Inverse folding.
C-alpha cells in the first residue's frame, strides 16, 4: 500500500493534463450538473469536444486508436477518470453511444454492426437506448415491446420510456421480446432501429427540472430488417448494460470527484454567507467531509481488487453510497441558504440557484441505473451472502 | 493511492489472523476479566508473553503494516498491553530517543502513556492527575508526558519521563471494557532525573500513529461483529425461514456494511498518509478515527439487535465486543473531538482561501 503511482503512469497523467489544459472548451469545465440541455439537444461544443477527444485517442483510452483510444491499461483508465472528474469535464453529454452501444456492438455485433461502433463512440451518430418500459423499470426482464419476425423483417410494437436523447437520436439500441413463451430472461433480443423508420413516434418527457432530454418512444408496426438483430436471437439479456468493462474499476471516480468539489464549495459558501461558525452546520459539513473522504478511499481500495482481476465488492457499494451522498450534499447547499434555500430565480438565488438545481437533478441518481432499493438487495445477496427472501 | 498488498503484507495479515484466532479464544479474556477464576489472568499473561511480545516491535514498522496486524487483533478481544506498548508508548519513546525504547521494542518491557489531563484531552498539560491511562496494571513502565503550564500550544514543549509503574500512585477506574483497564495516575514529584523534551507538534504526530492503529483495531472489532451477525441471521429461523432473508434486516446490515467498508478504507488511507508524511495525514487521521469509531459502535448495536435475546446474554461473546467498541471509540479523542478538529481545519484553511 502506498500513496503514489509509478513514474510511467504519472507521465500518462501529465500528458493528459496538458491536453485538457489546452483543448477543453470552457463550457465543459465544472459548474452545473450536465444532464443534457432543456430540449435534450446535444450542444455543438459538446459534439466538437467528443470528436476531438476521439481523434486524439482520449475518448475511450483503453481502446485502440481507431476506436478513439490509446490502448491504456486499467490504471491509466483510472487516472483518466480522476483528471476529468477533478475538473468536472464530461467527455460526452450522452453516455449511451460510447458507453453502452459502442462496446455492445463491438462485442456482440456482426461485421456491419461493428463498423457502426466508431461513429457511436465519436458521437457522430447519436444513439438512444431503449430499455425501460412503463411496466419494466427495476424489473427490466418484464419488458413487453414485441418483435415478431416475418422472415425479412421484425415487426416491432410497444413503448419505451425514460429514453434519453430519443428526440435527437438517429438510432435506437432497442430491447424487445422475441419469444413471449420462453422464460422471461430467455425471450429478449436487441435490435438497432433507425429512428426515422415509419411507425416510430417520440414524445418528449419533461422531468422535474423542466428539461426534456428524456422521451417516450412508441413503436407501431415498425418494420426492422432482420440483419439489425444484434447478437443471437433471444440472447439479448446478455447484452444488458454491456458497458465498458475495462473502465469499471473507475466508474465511481466521477461521483466522488463531484462530491469533493461540492464539499469544499459548501464550506466556502457557508463562510461567505456568514454561517461559518454555526455549530450545527459545521458538524453537518464535517460529517459529509468524512463521508466523502472515506468513500474516495473505498473507491481506490476497490480499484486495487479490480486491477488484480478479482471481484471488487467495494464497487457494489459505490453507486448506492455516492448517489445518496450527493443528495445530502446538495440539500445541505440549500440549507446553508436558510430561508432562501428554495429560491430558484437565477437573478436572486445564490450562485444562480446551482444548489437548488443540482439537488433536483440528484434525486434521479437514486432511481436511474438501479434504484437504491435494488442496490441494497443486490449487496445483501451477492456481497453479504444473506439468504434470499 | 494503491491499496494493493505486497505478498509480505498478505502474509503478515494471514499470520496475524491465524495467531489471534488460534491462540486468543475469548475464554482467556473471560477468565482474566469477566468471570475471574483463580489464576485466571495467568493464562492470558502467558499467551501474551509467548505470542504477542515479539510483535511489539510493529511500532517501529510502517503504519500500514501495524494496522494490518492490529486489525486482526481487534477481531479478537484480548487483554494485553499490545496497543499501549507498540502503538502508543514505543513511538513516543522513539521520538525522544529514550534508551528504554529498544527494550520495549524487543518485548522485554511493556509500557503505556500517561498524558490526558483531567479534561480527558490527549494534549500535554500541567495537571497533576493524568487520566485514561490504558493497560495500567499490565505494564512495566509508564511514559509520563507533562507540561509546565495548563497546556502547551503547538510551539511549546512537553517533558517526558519514564517511570516504573510500581512507583506511581494510581487508581484503577472501572471502564465498560474490562479487558482494557484504565487508571488515573498521580504525577510523581520530579526527582533528580532530567526529563526529555518533545514539541507539542511532534507529540501530535506521534499520537497520530496510535490513533490510526486504534482505528484499525476497531475495524477488526466491527468486522468480527459483522461476520458473526451474518452467520447468525443466515441460520436462525423464525416464521419458517432464516431471519436474514427479511428485507428489513438485510437493508440494516447492508447500510452498516457499507459504513464498515468505508471506515476500513479510510483507516488505510490515513496509514499511507502517515507513512508518506503527506500533508493530508492530520485530516486523514481524524477521518479514520471518527469513521472507525462510528462503525464499531454501530455494528455493536446492530449486531445485538440482529441477534435478539441471545446477544444480550453474558454467555454470548457479543458484549465483549460491544464494550470494546464503545470504549475504544472514546479513547484518544472521541468522535466529536475528532470532528471538531477536522472542522477547525476545514473552515480555517477554507477561510484563508476566500
Amino acid at each position: 500500500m502506498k500513496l503514489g503511482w509509478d513514474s510511467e503512469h504519472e507521465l500518462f497523467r501529465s500528458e493528459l493534463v496538458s491536453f485538457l489544459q489546452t483543448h477543453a472548451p470552457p463550457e465543459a469545465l465544472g459548474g452545473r450538473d450536465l444532464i443534457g440541455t432543456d430540449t435534450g439537444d446535444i450542444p455543438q461544443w459538446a459534439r466538437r469536444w467528443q470528436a476531438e477527444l476521439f481523434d486524439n485517442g482520449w475518448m475511450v483510452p483503453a481502446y485502440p486508436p481507431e476506436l478513439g483510444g490509446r490502448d491504456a491499461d486499467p490504471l491509466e483508465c483510472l487516472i483518466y477518470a480522476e483528471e476529468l472528474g477533478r475538473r468536472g469535464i464530461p467527455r460526452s453529454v450522452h453516455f449511451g453511444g460510447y458507453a453502452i452501444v459502442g462496446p455492445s456492438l463491438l462485442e456482440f455485433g456482426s461485421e456491419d454492426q461493428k463498423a457502426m461502433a466508431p461513429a457511436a463512440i465519436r458521437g457522430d451518430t447519436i444513439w438512444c437506448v431503449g430499455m425501460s418500459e412503463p411496466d419494466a423499470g427495476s424489473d427490466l426482464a418484464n419488458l413487453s415491446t414485441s418483435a415478431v419476425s416475418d422472415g425479412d423483417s421484425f415487426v416491432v410494437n410497444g413503448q419505451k420510456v425514460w429514453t434519453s436523447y430519443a428526440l435527437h437520436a438517429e438510432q435506437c439500441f432497442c430491447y424487445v421480446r422475441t419469444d413471449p413463451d420462453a422464460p422471461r430472461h430467455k425471450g429478449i433480443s436487441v435490435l438497432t432501429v433507425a429512428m426515422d423508420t415509419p411507425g416510430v413516434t417520440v414524445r418528449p418527457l419533461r422531468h422535474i427540472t423542466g428539461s426534456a432530454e428524456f422521451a417516450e418512444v412508441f413503436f407501431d408496426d415498425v418494420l426492422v430488417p432482420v440483419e439489425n438483430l444484434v447478437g443471437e436471437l433471444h440472447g439479448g439479456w446478455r447484452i444488458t448494460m454491456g458497458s465498458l468493462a475495462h473502465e469499471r474499476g473507475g466508474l465511481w471516480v466521477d461521483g466522488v470527484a463531484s462530491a469533493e468539489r461540492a464539499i469544499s464549495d459548501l464550506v466556502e459558501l457557508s463562510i461567505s454567507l456568514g454561517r461559518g461558525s454555526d455549530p450545527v452546520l459545521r458538524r453537518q459539513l464535517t460529517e459529509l467531509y468524512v463521508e466523502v473522504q472515506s468513500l474516495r478511499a473505498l473507491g481506490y481500495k476497490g480499484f486495487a481488487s479490480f486491477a488484480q482481476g478479482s471481484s471488487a465488492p467495494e464497487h457494489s457499494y459505490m453507486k448506492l453510497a455516492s448517489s445518496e451522498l450527493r443528495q445530502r450534499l446538495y440539500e445541505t447547499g440549500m440549507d446553508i441558504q436558510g430561508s432562501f434555500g428554495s429560491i430558484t430565480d437565477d437573478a436572486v438565488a445564490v450562485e444562480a440557484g446551482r444548489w437548488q438545481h443540482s439537488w433536483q437533478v440528484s434525486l434521479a441518481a437514486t432511481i436511474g441505473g438501479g434504484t437504491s432499493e435494488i442496490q441494497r438487495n443486490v449487496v445483501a445477496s451477492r456481497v453479504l451472502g444473506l439468504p434470499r427472501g | 493511492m494503491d491499496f494493493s498488498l505486497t505478498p509480505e503484507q498478505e502474509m503478515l495479515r494471514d499470520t496475524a489472523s491465524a495467531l489471534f484466532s488460534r491462540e486468543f479464544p475469548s475464554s482467556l479474556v473471560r477468565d482474566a476479566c469477566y468471570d475471574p477464576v483463580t489464576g485466571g489472568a495467568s493464562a492470558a499473561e502467558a499467551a501474551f508473553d509467548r505470542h504477542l511480545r515479539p510483535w511489539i516491535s510493529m511500532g517501529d514498522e510502517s503504519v500500514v503494516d501495524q494496522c494490518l496486524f492490529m486489525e486482526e487483533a481487534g477481531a479478537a478481544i484480548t487483554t494485553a498491553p499490545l496497543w499501549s506498548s507498540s502503538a502508543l508508548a514505543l513511538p513516543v519513546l522513539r521520538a525522544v530517543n529514550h534508551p528504554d525504547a529498544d527494550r520495549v521494542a524487543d518485548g522485554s518491557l511493556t509500557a503505556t502513556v500517561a498524558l490526558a489531563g483531567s479534561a480527558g484531552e490527549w494534549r500535554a498539560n500541567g495537571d497533576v492527575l493524568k487520566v485514561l491511562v490504558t493497560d495500567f496494571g499490565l505494564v512495566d513502565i509508564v511514559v509520563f508526558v507533562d507540561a509546565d503550564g495548563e497546556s502547551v500550544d503547538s510551539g511549546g514543549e512537553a517533558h517526558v519521563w519514564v517511570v516504573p509503574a510500581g512507583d506511581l500512585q494510581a487508581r484503577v477506574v472501572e471502564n465498560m471494557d474490562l479487558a482494557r483497564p484504565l487508571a488515573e495516575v498521580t504525577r510523581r514529584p520530579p526527582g533528580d532525573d532530567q526529563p526529555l523534551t518533545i514539541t507539542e507538534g511532534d507529540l501530535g504526530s506521534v499520537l497520530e500513529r496510535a490513533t490510526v492503529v486504534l482505528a484499525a483495531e476497531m475495524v477488526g472489532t466491527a468486522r468480527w461483529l459483522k461476520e458473526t451477525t451474518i452467520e447468525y441471521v443466515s441460520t436462525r429461523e423464525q416464521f419458517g425461514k432464516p431471519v436474514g432473508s427479511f428485507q428489513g434486516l438485510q437493508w440494516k446490515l447492508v447500510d452498516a456494511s457499507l459504513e464498515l467498508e468505508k471506515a476500513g478504507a479510510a483507516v488505510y488511507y490515513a496509514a499511507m498518509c502517515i507513512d508518506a508524511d503527506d500533508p493530508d495525514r492530520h485530516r486523514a487521521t481524524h477521518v479514520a478515527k471518527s469513521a472507525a469509531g462510528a462503525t464499531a459502535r454501530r455494528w455493536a448495536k446492530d449486531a445485538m439487535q440482529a441477534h435478539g435475546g441471545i446477544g444480550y446474554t453474558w454467555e454470548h461473546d457479543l458484549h465483549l465486543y460491544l464494550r470494546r467498541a464503545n470504549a475504544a471509540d472514546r479513547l484518544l479523542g472521541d468522535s466529536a473531538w475528532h470532528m471538531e478538529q477536522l472542522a477547525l481545519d476545514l473552515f480555517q484553511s477554507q477561510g484563508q482561501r476566500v
